[in-house]
Write a structure and sequence with these properties.
149 residues; alpha/beta; Cytidine Deaminase, domain 2; 40% strand
């Protein structure tokens, strides 16, 4: 599947990494708000969320239906779209796990930041196939100057 890179404003990339460090050694999670159209997808804002997973927050994250509704509402209020989700992998690679695939939805972008010993490392993005069998990597293009909102 060939697709355009996911454009991520540099401030948003910094915030994702900082959220991962803040919640370490547990996984952080949040919503990606932005625009998807004309072959371009851009992350313009974030909605950090609490990891609702209480049994294994070190290697799992969970968002509730209320979190999803809040993300959709926040996106609408900002005249943006909910285009994906982000989370961290403490002391693990920035690759989706089988658990991630089992709980993901097609179409959305999934950014994962690896946080090793409390320091942010690789950040990757992934898109789940429509048949949910596998992910394709999605190139991240950091955008230094924000486009007009």
């Amino acid at each position: 599947m060939s697709q355009a890179p996911l454009k991520v404003r540099d401030e948003m990339a910094r915030r994702i990494r900082a959220h991962g460090v803040e919640t370490y050694p547990h996984e952080c999670c949040g919503a990606l708000l932005g625009r998807d159209g004309d072959g371009t997808r851009e992350v313009i804002d974030l909605l950090p969320l609490a990891n609702r997973r209480d049994d294994s927050p070190r290697n799992r994250f969970e968002v509730t239906p209320d979190d999803v509704r809040l993300a959709e509402k926040t996106a609408r209020e900002k005249r943006l779209e909910l285009i994906g989700w982000y989370h961290s992998h403490p002391d693990a690679p920035a690759r989706p796990s089988e658990f991630d695939r089992d709980h993901a939805w097609p179409w959305y972008s999934y950014i994962i930041v690896s946080v090793q010993k409390g320091e942010p490392k690789d950040m990757t993005s992934w898109r789940l196939h429509d048949d949910r069998a596998a992910y394709d990597p999605e190139q991240i293009e950091t955008v230094a100057h924000p486009a007009s909102i």
